[in-house]
Amino acid sequence: MINKVIEVINSCETFLITAHVRLDGDAVGSELALYHVLRNMGKKAVIYNQDRTPDVYTFLPASNVIINDLDSVEIFDAAFVLDCSDIERVGEEAKRIISIKYCNKSLYGYSYRHGRILLFQYGELHVFRGGKTCRSWRRSSMDSGKCI
Fold first, then answer.
1. Domains defined along the chain, listed by start
2. Which of 24, 91, 111, 129 has its CA 20 to 30 A from that of 84?
């Protein structure tokens, strides 16, 4: 299944990134770190949150790109739902949803627990399988590191 996640990242061009309601630092930081990684890979990424970003997190690089209105998710090839306990909050419109951290259900395809799939470390995105790195992207930036 991890190979499918890698395939989604490599084959898709447009990504929706979102998190749970009542945002906290884990959610906002994770969203922005992933945003920077995807953008540095040449992908289009949009961060949408139902709630406004708390002022305490506006110092994070690119926090101003987060939007609170989204007409449709049909324009995205894939969506990341980060730090979310209930994936149903996002809806079924996205073609693929990869849920990272605390997902109870695997309703939409790929569901993995925190720390087993994606880890941002020192500006790199790592995908893990069985505790070993099976794929790394070094196209991230210092901005992604600042967000985590």
1. 2-147 (3.90.1640.10)
2. 129
